[in-house]
Specification:
The structure is a homodimer of 219-residue chains. Chain A is mostly helical and 219 residues long. Chain A has a domain of 145 residues: Orthogonal Bundle (Tetracycline Repressor, domain 2), CATH 1.10.357. Helices cover 74% and strands 0% of the residues of chain A. The radius of gyration of chain A is 20 Å and the shape is globular. Chains A and B meet through helix 7, helix 9, helix 10, helix 11 and helix 12 of A and helix 7, helix 9, helix 10, helix 11 and helix 12 of B. Chain A binds a DNA duplex (30 and 30 nucleotides) through helix 4.
Chain lengths: 219, 219
DNA sequence: GCTAGATTGTACCCGTCAGTACAATCCGTC
DNA sequence: GACGGATTGTACTGACGGGTACAATCTAGC
């Protein structure tokens, strides 16, 4: 709504930034849905208010479009994550909230997940070329490191926790939950993906992560 | 070695089963490497001791080849898993061993992982069509269920453990570790994928799973 | 109101790639 | 040693799809 208004501020016939965004949005959907070689430039164009000609004008070639679509997808989710403020919570609550949030956030951004899957199929070639994205992710780790540090100082987290390894564990569950839903549902039924099933998996994941972070109870 | 001998049992020039296996192996590599539309039938043929003509003769079309390649990949890994005998171990040891094994097994079968990734990109369409594969997976769950039951009876596992949810958690870590290695390494460095890093992640995963399974210590 | 540069539409080119026609060859069996 | 079905090689086709040529139109600034 507000976006549409902002996009129309210039003229009706020429609006470069609006066109770029329009194309990028279409590209993310199409690439996420069909993969790099599965996506057709003509199909992306068809999802657009403009034409194939414009895609080549603004993005050079298919690879250029793909790279920018990937950046756009990353940018969107990391932006959403940045809104989460955990600094004021005690470490245990902060970690709990972070895990639950990540689980839900991934779940509500399937296009992003699929872009990352595709990027992994292609050995992260496009990602390597974009240092923009790396910065966004360093920030995510720093947030986690800060929680770990506070937890250690308060004596409730074990010493020497590795925030990267912890992030790996959180991502694994949250990512797999979306990325492998199709095959998992076919093989084991879709109960796990009902509301109740998801709630269970989320709390199970929170529990697993907390167990890694917490200091062992004395035997 | 033994395979090559068996394959040559018929004649040198005609050997249908050998040709089929040869094609399937090439197809798994190529599909795993490049995805469904990324893989080219001509390239698969080039990896083969025979010709493109034979692919169409034995498999009908590209989709038929893909489906059978997927089945072959599943068959190979589940076969490897079936060798693991846990019935004689106490539940805690059995679960520990199962998790560690799964972690390593996935890691040493990257082609399988990539086939599953690709299948997920395509909404598991080929997988749904093959009931062969479903059976293989039910067996995996049954093995886990048996461990859970014994653990509950002995009073060391919590009651009402869901083997499917547990399997989900084990798979998530083991799968993600391989599937997302490229992007994860680009974003966070590849220390996690060194021998030391992998050992750490494996034991961290074992710990997380055990924490889910074990009965809570009385407060 | 004209010029320069930025944007856009139409129509096309040309390589790639799934799939095939057709004929040849093999091999077990009689 | 000839028949018939199973297997294989060669050479092609036809559509699809990434990318472009060329000209038209827009917009800002003078």
């Amino acid at each position: 709504m507000t976006n549409a208004m902002a996009e129309d501020r210039r003229s009706w016939t020429q609006n470069p930034e609006g066109v770029r965004r329009d194309i990028l949005a279409a590209a993310v959907s199409e690439f996420a849905e069909r993969g790099l070689s599965g996506a057709k430039v003509d199909d992306i164009a068809a999802r657009t208010r403009t034409s194939k000609r414009m895609i080549y004008y603004y993005f050079g070639d298919k690879m250029g479009l793909y790279t920018q679509a990937l950046e756009a997808a990353y940018h969107k989710v990391r932006e959403g994550e940045a809104l989460l403020d955990l600094g004021h919570l005690p470490p245990l609550d902060a970690l709990t909230k972070l895990v639950a949030f990540t689980f839900d956030h991934h779940r509500s951004n399937p296009d992003f997940i699929r872009m990352v899957m595709i990027e992994n199929i292609h050995q992260a070639k496009a990602l390597s070329a974009s240092e923009k994205i790396r910065d966004l992710n360093i920030a995510a780790i720093e947030k986690l490191r800060e929680i770990c540090d506070r937890g250690e100082q308060e004596g409730i987290f074990r010493r020497g926790l590795d925030p990267v390894a912890l992030h790996w564990q959180i991502s694994a569950a949250s990512f797999f939950n979306v990325s492998n839903r199709p095959t998992f549902a076919v093989l084991f039924g879709d109960e796990m993906f009902s509301d109740a099933g998801q709630a269970h998996l989320r709390s199970q994941t929170v529990e697993a992560i907390l167990a890694i972070a917490k200091k062992h109870e004395a035997p």
